[in-house]
Records
---
Amino acid sequence: MAPVLAIAAPTFGRLVEVLTAEKRSLRLLYDHLIRLGLLLAAGEHRFIARSLDEVAAIRADLGALELARAAICDTLVPSSNATLMDAVAFAPDDLAMRLLSVGDDLQVLSNLITQEQERCQEISRRRESLTRTAIRRIAEWNPDPDEPSAA
């Protein structure tokens, strides 16, 4: 006999739970991006791949949470492609304030994540530039003191 899966009915309380889980995941992503930036800045290449894998796993979890949030919103709100603000308009007063609060937190975290991603990209570009410069200098270096330098 196949196991019976319990599927939670979409409610505004469930929406708050999903948003709270999304907030935790965004915070975790932000922390991992900070760690990745530190690894990039320090040139700790042996740890970067693992850090990138962890970031990718968190992003996958976030994708699932975003789908759950969208599905709940679409069920609770009579318009298509309902947003969080649409859900707030239909939510009971006690949950509307929680939805707004968590929504604000999600926005702040999203902005921080964007800034941290840009910082990581900038660090990568600088590191790449330094590496190209070092390779060029090594290529120009002549270890035999009796032969003239290429420069």
---
Amino acid sequence: MYRAIIGAVAGALFFAVPMLLGGTPDADAAKSKGLTFYQTSAALYNPVEQWTDWVQGTYNGFPADPSLWVNNPTSCAWHVDDSTVWVAEGELLAGGSGVASLCMVSDQNPIYATHYGMTAWWSGVRNRFAVTISSPSSALIVTACYQPQARCFAVNAVWHQETDDYRYLACIQAVYDPGDPALVEVPGSNGGGREFGGFGVVTTIATTITNPTGHTIRDLRAAMEVTNVGSGSQRIGAGAALACEAGLAEINWPSYDYPFRWNVP
């Protein structure tokens, strides 16, 4: 379905000792201290497909009047086709750690909406958060933490024989039941002709990588993304979606603790 794109940005976060957030350190300092994460792509679309009514007779299936759309006023992924990708490669000094964060709107499934004249509870896929790190060492401590849910996931090292290194992989999704009190109307999301906008939990996901050893760990490669891996166009070569492969079918998540479901090999 056609969407209007509302964002495509590029930038950098720095893994350093201490962590550098904001500002622009000089290139030599950044290189000597650790990993540099670059946002390689970001695509945010309006209207928010899963919350906007679908109608017959328009080019894109959405109402011709934009005031009837549910829009995304945030800089976070929300539309089911939204995506954002951060990648890095380099080294992490002994005792070093850092945090790289991205955000998404976690919402409910199903959603009460009208699709081509039929009003019902409609179910659909929801975006996932995926992370992968390749490393010659299994000693890294990697966590992915959700706020405001105050939930952290440990990401473990698994030997990857094909590439002769360790992989830290995780695929995590938070999906809420309708009526959950954690769901609130996203401010500014409702068009002028709608009674309500879209509901969700604006979520920040912080991935922390720590080197607890007494030596530098080199040849690190990492990727983090918010993606709907059910869409082939959203699978990236960096491999952050690898851990999501087992979760492609909604019934196939190996771990579940409401509102979270996840695959951490």
